[in-house]
Amino acid sequence: MATINREIKHSLGLDGAKSVVGGLVKKIEDNYGSLISDIKWNDDKTAADVKGKGFSGNFALTADTVKINIELGFLTSPFKGKIEEEIDKQVADLK
């Protein structure tokens, strides 16, 4: 199985990061909703576990960092590079 790990530094503060990441999650759900089966947020919306077709992962927000960890399944592993490109493109607003 392939793993994708990203740690993105930002200067948005926690509330700003929550806003940007919330918008990003909404955009991903709109564009790729058929691939996502479940997103479970913690109470203060600073972390979530995500499951979908061929992957599982989590992300966490702090006042200066967003951490993304994704485990790709056997069938999605060949698309690791493409998925990494899309993640990097989507989180560009955090930098």
Ordered list of secondary-structure elements with their pairings:
Elements: E1 2-9, H1 13-32, E2 36-41, E3 47-52, E4 55-61, E5 65-72, H2 80-90
Antiparallel strand pairs: 1-5, 2-3, 3-4, 4-5
Attribute tags:
95 residues, alpha+beta, five-stranded antiparallel β-sheet, 2 helices, 5 strands, 33% helix, 37% strand
Task: Please characterize this protein's 3D structure.
By secondary structure, the chain is an alpha+beta fold. It contains two helices and five strands; from the N terminus they run βαββββα. The chain has helices at 13-32, 80-90, and strands at 2-9, 36-41, 47-52, 55-61, 65-72. A five-stranded antiparallel β-sheet has the order 1-5-4-3-2, with helices on one face. The longest helix is centred in the first third of the chain and has 20 residues, at 13-32. It is globular and about 35 Å long. It starts with a strand and ends in a 5-residue tail after the last helix. The model has no long low-confidence stretch (mean pLDDT 90).
Helical content class: 25-40%
Question: How many individual β-strands?
Answer: 5
Radius of gyration: 13 Å
Span from first to last CA? 29 Å
Low-confidence stretches: none
Largest sheet: 5 strands, antiparallel
Number of helices: 2
Instruction: Provide the succession of SSEs.
Output: EHEEEEH
